Structure to design on (654 residues):
């Protein structure tokens, strides 16, 4: 089932508009802006009653998704986690189908069955179990290697995921069997409310290195710094058909989900000085930024309004009694 | 001589791998010459070295890997060396394999088979003797299937492998060396046997005269039930029906209800612990369907860990004598 809105909006994986040529710098900004505005709108919508349940905003981390997806092929396989909206939009996913899914609508990515953390479209998958997705993504890499598809798999982990044993079983297997998978650790320095200092002993790269897996690391929210690092790691996985780790040290500006933020406001304010959108905007002509702002505003308004008007799904199958 | 359950299952794996290049076999210690702890995978790695993957001791990891393989078009058949270790793969079954198809709105399939030996009576003690399949009954999106000596285990396993949804395939350890039964021979000589439609069939064994009681069972416990039923017939002139299930979950109980409408007495027999077991759901559904005057009993393991000492193990697991006594008690209710 491919939505007709796909043609309407013309998002395609990783490359932005089909019919607008733009520089890589503009495309990166456009992706980050779309994620930022989408997540802001999403958080606002909780107060309108259109959205229930919970969500995990990517605000502040946009440069990671924009940088990585600018280097992946549209055919590559992606397994994301609870904080998946940014990854999905950078992959080229349709904001309208995502908004509809978040509202629990029949037109959502998975018909309202999954919601925020459990989506699937083309080669993009997400699930809400920390660690559990990592062996699944690893098996996908085995399948792509066995089929000789040339596709690689990217799995998204957070610093919190590093506490799960399934991660290390996966790293061991991926290295033993030389599987084409990139493990991205988005270290946003907090697992829900727990700082890395209370949850992650030793070194993150050393975790990978111990299994014979090379790592790339970037300590920046500047998308221009992230792109070449991501490129190096992705090229290595594709060319050597071997796993790699990519560690992006970042920070989320929003709460883990909603209203569960106990971080020091001064610390948050400090990181906001390194807002990835502000950093990258300074390099772009103001007229282009205005255009992209207008476009993002209109795409997101349309996405949420159309999704809001859509019907809710019906449960099929035998009744309970 | 008919093949044993072990030979039958082994031949099915050979057939599946020959027929379909998408079939991969994963598990611990499955390479030749060892060929797996119970030898079900014997010969596969010699014949199909690229598609037989011996794994580290990482049950969650290898079932997760198998999930990913299945999501991307392969057909993994994964062995968990002892059924007791299914607790380690519960997350991968419940939150991943069984959920993906429905959660992703029917847009994906997970053709995954997890095979594992369950059951006691070999003195392996508390963590290598259990029948834990009850923990997975009723998990949406998952089929739980168990071979027996009457149906064809090879056919059952091949059906599981070609199923587009995940199947947990429960092999009782004591079945491996048992030869397959032949209808009309040996201790089946007095029984009329019918088989339900479908890939994971239910068998109904009718005694020669009007039955007074219906046994419901699966897997190895059919061996004990059959002997108890023959004893009831020969020593007590009490005739029974035996309903033998291959598919444990989702529950499909129509052949059982047909029999209960004649007998009005149901005795479930399983090797897992009594509380919230397979028999609990079977009896609840039989009660709900409204069979007049239904009387029920359940034979199962005591709600204890399974002891190592044979004397204690025998006292904890249901025996042929327990089944016979429970049947007689139920008939006197």
């Amino acid at each position: 089932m491919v939505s007709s809105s796909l043609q309407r909006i013309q998002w395609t994986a990783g490359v932005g508009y089909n019919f607008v040529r733009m520089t890589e710098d503009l495309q990166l900004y456009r992706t980050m802006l779309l994620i930022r505005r989408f997540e802001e709108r999403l958080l606002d919508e909780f107060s309108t009653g259109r959205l229930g349940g919970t969500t995990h905003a990517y605000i502040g981390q946009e440069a990671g998704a924009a940088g990585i997806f600018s280097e992946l092929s549209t055919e590559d396989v992606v397994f994301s986690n609870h904080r998946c909206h940014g990854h999905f939009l950078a992959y080229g996913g349709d904001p309208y189908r995502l908004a509809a899914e978040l509202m629990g609508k029949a037109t959502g990515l998975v018909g309202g069955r999954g919601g925020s953390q459990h989506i699937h479209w083309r080669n993009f998958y997400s699930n809400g179990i920390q660690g559990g997705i990592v062996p699944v993504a690893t098996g996908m890499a085995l399948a792509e290697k066995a089929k000789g598809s040339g596709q690689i798999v990217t799995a998204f982990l957070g610093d919190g995921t590093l506490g799960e044993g399934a991660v290390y079983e996966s790293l061991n297997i991926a290295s033993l069997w030389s599987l084409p998978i990139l493990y991205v650790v988005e270290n946003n320095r907090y697992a829900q409310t727990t700082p890395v200092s209370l949850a992650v002993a030793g070194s993150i790269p050393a975790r990978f290195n111990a299994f014979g897996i090379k790592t790339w690391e970037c300590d920046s929210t500047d998308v221009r710094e992230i792109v070449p690092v991501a490129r190096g790691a992705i090229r290595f996985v594709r060319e050597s058909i071997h796993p790699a780790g990519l560690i992006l040290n970042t920070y989320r500006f929003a709460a883990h989900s909603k209203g569960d933020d106990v971080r020091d406001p001064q610390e948050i304010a400090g990181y906001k000085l390194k807002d990835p959108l502000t950093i990258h905007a300074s390099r772009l002509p103001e007229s282009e930024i205005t255009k992209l702002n207008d476009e993002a505003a209109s795409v997101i308004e349309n996405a949420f309004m159309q999704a809001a008007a859509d019907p809710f799904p019906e449960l099929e199958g035998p009744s309970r009694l | 001589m008919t093949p044993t359950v072990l030979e039958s299952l082994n031949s099915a794996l050979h057939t599946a791998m020959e027929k379909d290049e998408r079939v991969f076999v994963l598990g611990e210690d499955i390479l030749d010459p060892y060929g797996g702890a119970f030898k079900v995978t014997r010969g596969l790695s010699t014949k199909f070295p690229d598609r037989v993957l011996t794994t580290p001791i990482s049950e969650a990891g290898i079932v997760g890997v198998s999930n990913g393989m299945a999501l991307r078009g392969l057909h993994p058949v994964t062995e968990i060396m002892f059924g007791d270790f299914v607790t380690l793969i519960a997350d991968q079954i419940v939150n991943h394999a069984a959920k993906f198809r429905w959660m992703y709105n029917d847009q994906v399939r997970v053709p995954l088979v997890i095979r594992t030996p369950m059951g006691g009576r070999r003195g392996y003690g508390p963590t290598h003797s259990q029948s834990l399949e009850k923990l997975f009954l009723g998990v949406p999106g998952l089929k739980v299937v168990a071979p027996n000596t009457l149906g064809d285990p090879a056919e059952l396993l091949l059906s599981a492998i070609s199923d587009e949804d995940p199947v947990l395939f429960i092999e009782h350890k004591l079945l491996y060396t048992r030869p397959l039964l032949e209808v009309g021979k040996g201790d089946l000589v007095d029984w009329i046997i019918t088989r339900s439609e479908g890939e994971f069939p239910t068998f109904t064994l009718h005694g020669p005269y009007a039955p007074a009681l219906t046994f419901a069972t699966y897997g190895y416990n059919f061996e004990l039930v059959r002997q108890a039923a023959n004893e009831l017939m020969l020593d007590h002139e009490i005739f029974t029906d035996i309903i033998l299930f291959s598919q444990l979950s989702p529950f499909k109980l129509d052949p059982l209800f047909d029999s209960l409408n004649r007998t009005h007495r149901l005795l479930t027999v399983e090797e897992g612990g009594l509380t919230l077991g397979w028999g609990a759901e079977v009896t609840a559904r039989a009660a709900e369907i409204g069979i007049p005057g239904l009387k029920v009993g359940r034979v199962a393991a005591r709600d204890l860990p399974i002891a190592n000492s044979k004397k204690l193990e025998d006292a904890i697991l249901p025996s042929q004598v327990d089944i016979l006594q429970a049947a007689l008690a139920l008939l006197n209710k």
